[in-house]
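Hi support team,

I've been running sequence recovery on a batch of backbones for a student project. Most finish fine, but this one hangs at about 90% for roughly twenty minutes before it completes. I'm not sure whether the input is malformed or the queue is just slow. I've pasted the C-alpha cells below so you can try to reproduce it. Let me know if you need the job ID as well.

Thanks,
M.K.
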C-alpha cells in the first residue's frame, strides 16, 4: 500500500468517525455525552451545548472530506495538524474536570495522536512527477 493510499484511508476513516460522533451528539445527546469522559454533562437547559459539540464534530469531518475530495493534500495535512488541537484539548478538559485518566488518554489522547500522525504523513507526501506523453515535446 502506498503512502498516498494509507493517508487517504486514515483521513477518510477519521472524517467518517468524527461525523458519526457529531451526528450522535445531535441525535442522542445525553447518551453520547456519557461516553465523552466527563463526570457530569449539561442537562435540561444546558443540553444545547451538546448540540454545539455535535455541529463542531460534523464540521471538522466535512473539512477533511472537502480537502480530500478536491485533492488538496498539502492543505489537508496542515488542516489536520490544526485539528489535532481539538482531541488534545478534549483530553485536557477531561483530565482537568476529574474524568478518568484512562479515558482521557485512551480516547482523546489516542485520537490526537492518530490525527497528528495522519497530518505528518500527509505533509511528508511528495507530489508525483509529471508524466510526459509521447506526443508531448520535451522542453529545453
Amino acid at each position: 500500500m502506498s503512502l498516498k493510499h494509507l493517508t487517504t484511508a486514515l483521513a477518510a476513516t477519521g472524517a467518517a468517525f468524527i461525523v458519526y460522533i457529531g451526528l450522535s451528539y445531535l441525535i442522542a445527546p445525553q447518551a453520547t455525552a456519557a461516553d465523552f469522559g466527563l463526570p457530569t454533562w449539561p442537562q435540561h437547559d444546558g443540553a444545547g451545548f451538546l448540540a454545539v459539540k455535535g455541529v463542531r464534530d460534523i464540521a471538522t469531518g466535512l473539512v477533511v472530506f472537502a480537502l480530500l475530495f478536491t485533492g488538496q493534500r498539502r492543505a489537508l495535512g496542515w488542516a489536520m495538524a490544526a485539528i489535532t488541537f481539538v482531541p488534545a484539548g478534549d483530553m485536557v478538559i477531561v483530565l482537568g474536570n476529574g474524568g478518568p485518566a484512562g479515558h482521557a488518554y485512551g480516547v482523546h489522547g489516542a485520537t490526537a495522536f492518530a490525527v497528528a500522525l495522519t497530518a505528518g504523513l500527509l505533509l511528508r507526501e511528495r507530489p508525483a512527477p509529471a508524466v510526459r506523453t509521447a506526443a508531448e515535446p520535451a522542453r529545453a
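--
Follow-up from support: It reproduced on our side and the slowdown came from queue contention, not your input. DSSP finds six helices and no strands in the chain. No action needed from you.
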